[in-house]
Amino acid sequence: MEDTRVCNKCGIEYPITMFGMTGKWIRRQCRYCMNIVSIRSKSKHPEAAKLCVKRWKDNNAEHISNYGKEYYASNLDNIKEYKREYYSNVDNRKSRKLYSNKWYLDNKDNYILKTHGLSPDEHDRLFIKQDGRCAICGIDVCEMTKPLYIDHDHDTGKIRGLLCHYCNTMIGMSRDDPEVLVSAISYLISGSY
Q1: Alpha carbon of 154 to those of 20, 69, 141, 171: distances in Å?
Q2: Over 70: is that where the pLDDT of 121 sits?
């Protein structure tokens, strides 16, 4: 016969396996009551609950990483098949694009404020100052398919101006190094090597 114990919270008798362990001691409350206590505690003290989860994740980072790698390795074929089906479906592609565009339009001001510290009014002033054109090549925003990007110094965070997609990519690919850009200019002018 299996060992049993009565929960001191609900008063129901359960098999001993329904009670967790605290070190070498068996808990007095069954798993159901412990879950209820945990849920109530999380709703009353959400910050403490977040801290506990963060602490657990920090202490078990290696376990979490290994679990993810093992799961991915053992289910690689299923994951690839799912992705292949999902991304090949035209409706999924359209809905992802629509959702992405909608999210950007709905959250543009908050995104710009959070990432660059630029309020919507400051962004509009910068846009008007540049006459709605890229600060480098001067292409008009009406001729572009993408919006003007906010160019900033990655070291200081200082905003330099608004750039088109191509100029922003060029600056990024040069690693914000003027010497690389000067070298690129001389290369283009020389025409051959």
Answers
A1: 50, 33, 24, 11
A2: yes
Q: Say how many CA atoms lie within 13 Å of 19 toward its Cβ.
A: 21
Q: Which pTM was predicted?
A: 0.45
Give the list of residues 6+ apart from residue 3 with CB closer than 8 angstroms, or none. 15, 16
135 CA to centre of own chain: 29
pLDDT of 193 over the 60 cut: no
**Angstrom distance (rounded) from CA 164 to CA 146:** 8
Q: Which residue has the tokens 């114990």?
A: 5
Residues sharing a CB contact under 8 Å with residue 15, sequence separation 6 or more, in sequence order: 2, 3, 4
> Tokens representing 117?
């510290």
Q: How far is CA 116 from CA 109, 152, 158, 160, in A?
A: 10, 8, 8, 11
Domains of the chain: 4-74 (no CATH), 118-193 (3.40.1800.10)
